[in-house]
Amino acid sequence: MKLTVKLQDHSYPIFIERHALEHVADFLDPHRKYVIVTDDGVPARWVDLLQSQLSDARVITFPCGEANKSLATYESVMEQVISSHLTRKDAIIALGGGVVGDLAGFVAATYMRGIDFYNIPTTVLSQVDSSVGGKVAIDMAGYKNIVGAFHQPKAVLIDPETLSTLDQRQVSSGLVEALKMGLILDERLVELFEQEPLDLDTIIARSIDLKRAIVENDEKENGQRAILNFGHTIGHAIESAYHDVPYYHGECVGMGMLFFLPDPTLRARVQRILERLRIPATPAYDPKALRAFVEHDKKGQGDSVRAIVVDHAGTCRIEPMTYDQIETILERSPYEK
Ligand SMILES: O=C(O)C(=O)C[C@@H](O)[C@H](O)[C@H](O)COP(=O)(O)O
């Protein structure tokens, strides 16, 4: 399947195909010079498979985990890119999950003021969401994605076969971003989460297509794209506050979504899906401490933040909320008994 993200001057394809990684020459020029950026959580078989099909591709590997979406890792990868003598004609390939895509994309966005970048996502989270849309970033001073850019990939290559080497926790965490997409835009996608067994390929294709449409309408998040942040306002705060617990990003988004589902019936429905995915419950937290992290949200506007609220599955609204309102929301448990 091929989808196209249609943008003013940098449209790009999203290829979704099982075993696509076995014939990359059909999707990108194998004779171009590349640097493949990956992390040590990506199995060697995917890295070797990609590298073996390219005539000139050095591999740069950094340690996996959100803690490495950092300035130090950025500097280390950038130094290696510089020593590889990439020119503006060459390109970077991100092979991995959301952290790899965000970091490699940010390197590509800033090296020589921007070179081409291909995204080959190998986790559910990156295949259903983060590989498309051009948000590239690193974390700094304890805040998520606080330094970054919009830098769209030249192409995205999704091979669901790469998910076969993921552990269940990674799969579930990534699926939360697809559930988010369903809750804000498409109830049929939410229903897919209530079927047994889960149809992963359909969930991926449906989710990334919804993302494509949003990015086409609002590439730089001047309006509607903000809805993709459903669950992230408090989710990012939990992720930042509990970075030593290592919750996965999707787990935090799952926790964060529950606070913005005012209808108890829908909240209980989502809670059931999250339990089935084994998403951990929100840890005990200090509302004031989480509020402090929310105050640095990129959707912040003075003394308020644009919160995303889902009243009915498949639709959502953007509601400006003061930080006092956020603190009040945080004071109440989001769970239905
Ligand atoms: O692409 C977007 O836009 C999103 O908001 C997708 C999010 O799921 C993703 O986690 C994103 O990186 C968060 O964006 P941020 O602007 O809050 O850093």
From TrEMBL:
The keyword Lyase applies. Its EC number is 4.2.3.4. Keywords: Lyase. It is an enzyme of class 4 (lyase). This is 3-dehydroquinate synthase. The gene is aroB.
